[in-house]
Amino acid sequence: MRLKITHRTEYSYDVPVQYGLQRLRLVPQSGPTQAVVSWALEIAGAREEVRFADQFGNETRLVSVEGEPHGVSVEAGGIVETFDTSGIVGPHQGFAPLWLFARETALTVAADGIAALADAVAPASEVDRLHALMDAVADKVAYVPGSTHAGTNAEEAIALGKGVCQDQAHVFIAAARRLGYPARYVSGYLLLDGTVDQVASHAWAEAHVEALGWVAFDVANRISPDERYVRLAVGRDYREAMPVSGIRLGQAAEALAVHITVEQ
């Protein structure tokens, strides 16, 4: 399947910015599940400082902004050909060792709630057990937009019993690690039925199975990702894979607008 994607992020400020630095992970890479046919990243109102592959292999760019103008726009987009691999991404690659993905982070901390969820999953083959875990997380953490925020961790989402795809991925990752699987967070895009326009990118999780390598699980939709998914970046949690992040100095008030389209 060929997917056409546009992802536009616009920041506006009420006064000139003293200084800001943004990290962009907005360039997908070709791999077992996708081939990037064409892709462009256009930036207005900011200056690109450096581009590099981070420790997880994500193509990363740092851009800075200061003074005039009172706004920054970043538009990424292109065409990606996708393949249905039943969620199998394959062997581990990259600078980060596999054991790093077995360690918890502040967003994937595992305490009593995660422990109870993971320990209740019945023993089975590795892939079946992870699919059962995916269903258990979906049952425990209902998808409710706006119910959490970017800093909500896995234990908090379990306690609330609701969240968004980010929270569901964090809970799955924390529980999979408790069960002994290295696990990681994936940011990307999803072709939705009946709509082209979207207000946010998507997120899911991957667990490493010895015989298969990385295998993907989308808790929000209770499936392993297929040809409707485009992988953008990976990390141990949301903070390490988020498409756009940054810091800002000064007193400028910021307004953010995001517009995403995904179509076949």
TrEMBL record:
Annotated ranges, domain Transglutaminase-like: 157-221
Entry-linked Pfam families: Bact_transglu_N, Transglut_core
Entry superkingdom: Bacteria
SUPFAM superfamilies: Cysteine proteinases
Family matches, as InterPro entries: Bac_transglu_N, Papain-like_cys_pep_sf, Transglutaminase-like
SMART domains: TGc (SM00460)
Protein name (record): Transglutaminase
